[in-house]
């Protein structure tokens, strides 16, 4: 009976120590606030969404709308950069503009993003598989889908802007060449 008595004493001692440790943390958090608190992760299965079994409409409803605003502002920066590229290096900028315009006018499949929670593991040899669960992280997962009417109109508008940039670049360079030809005479 000596082994079981020692085992029970060890278990009780461990439980008392754990209760004391947790109680000390509660008191410390009440006194000092969250500045000295231990981080905790509350993970429930209801927060997780499985995106693999969703229909296309449900998947489209998961698009982050702020992402569209980010892409639009990024498009504006691209337009400015390509305009400058076309004006200063016309042999590369003009074909690039025409290519981007053609590509956007014929595009029917777009990439949308949704957020998915994935488990994060850390290397830990104390566990059977050599890894321990270290919480969750949200990642952006790309999904290809056909473009709807609004997105097709947006792509056509982008295409027209690229064609206009190319046209202005051609007019600018014809004007510059014309000035150079007339100034030599």
Layout of secondary structure:
Layout: H1 2-32, H2 56-61, H3 65-88, H4 90-106, E1 109-123, E2 131-146, H5 149-184
Helix pairs in contact: 3-4, 3-5, 4-5
What this model shows, in words?
With 185 residues, the chain is an alpha+beta fold. It folds into 2 domains: 1-40, no CATH class; 41-184, no CATH class. It is 62% helix and 17% strand. A two-stranded antiparallel sheet has the order 1-2.
Based on the model shown, name its key terms.
2 strands; alpha+beta; 185 residues; 2 domains
The figure for the number of domains is 2
Q: What's the average pLDDT?
A: 76
Helix content: 55-70%
- Distance between the amino and carboxyl termini: 116 Å
Total number of β-strand segments?
2
User: Order of helices and strands, N to C?
Assistant: HHHHEEH
Q: Give the class from helix and strand content and strand pairing.
A: alpha+beta
- Computed over alpha carbons, the radius of gyration is 31 Å
Shape assignment: elongated
Largest sheet: 2 strands, antiparallel
Low-confidence stretches are: 42-53, 62-70
Task: Enumerate how many helices there are, as a single number.
Answer: 5
Query: Strand order, biggest sheet?
Result: 1-2
Strand content: 15-25%
State the gist of this model.
The chain is of the alpha+beta class.
């Amino acid at each position: 009976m000596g082994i079981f008595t020692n085992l029970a004493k060890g278990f009780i001692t461990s439980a008392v120590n754990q209760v004391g440790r947790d109680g000390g943390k509660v008191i410390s958090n009440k006194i000092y606030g969250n500045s000295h608190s231990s981080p905790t992760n509350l993970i429930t299965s209801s927060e997780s969404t499985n995106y693999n079994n969703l229909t296309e409409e449900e998947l489209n409803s998961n698009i982050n709308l702020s992402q569209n605003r980010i892409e639009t502002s990024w498009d504006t920066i691209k337009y400015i950069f390509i305009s400058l590229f076309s004006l200063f290096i016309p042999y590369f900028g003009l074909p690039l503009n025409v290519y981007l315009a053609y590509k956007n006018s014929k595009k029917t499949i777009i990439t949308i993003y949704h957020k998915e929670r994935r488990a994060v593991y850390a290397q830990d040899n104390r566990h059977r598989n050599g890894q321990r669960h270290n919480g969750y992280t949200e990642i952006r997962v790309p999904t290809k889908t056909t473009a709807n009417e609004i997105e097709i109109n947006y792509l056509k508008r982008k295409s027209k802007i690229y064609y206009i940039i190319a046209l202005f670049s051609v007019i600018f360079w014809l004007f510059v060449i014309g000035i150079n030809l007339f100034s030599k005479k």
